[in-house]
Amino acid sequence: MNAYAWAFLVVAILFFLLFCVAMLGLIIAVVFAIRYGRMVLAWEENINESLDILDRAYANMWDVLQKPLFHDSPEVRSVLAEIHNCRESVLWISNALTMPARPKYINEQGSEINVIE
Asked: Does 77 map to a domain?
């Protein structure tokens, strides 16, 4: 064998090794992509179930708030106010989970504001 044949053989072996390493990297990437995809799907299913629970809680709280009060005591009014606050919190949580992330900016007063693009 002459020098060109040996050089061609060495280059062919190097390309074959490079191809094997690339295929091994591709297989590893596919395994992690499948594992990550399953994790994301499970997370999405859990969020959807949580949102269904929050929707039912919101509807129940709305029904309670629509009923007239027969007592004018401060305790009953404070409980009603807490239920109203909880209802608003449920609505805020469900909106936060379903809305895409929006950039936050700080206005002149120093508070954060969300900007819809």
From this structure: yes
Q: What is the pLDDT of residues 21-80, one digit of tens each?
A: 999 999 999 999 999 999 888 888 877 887 787 777 777 777 777 777 666 777 777 777
Residue pLDDT, tens place only, 57-71 = 777 777 777 777 666
Number of domains in the chain: 1
Helix (H) or strand (E) holding 1: none
Q: Which domain holds residue 49?
A: 3-98
Q: How far apart are CA 55 and CA 97, in angstroms?
A: 12
Q: Specify the pTM.
A: 0.50
Contacts of 94 (CB under 8 A, 6+ apart): 51, 54, 55, 58
* 55 vs 91: CA distance, rounded Å: 8
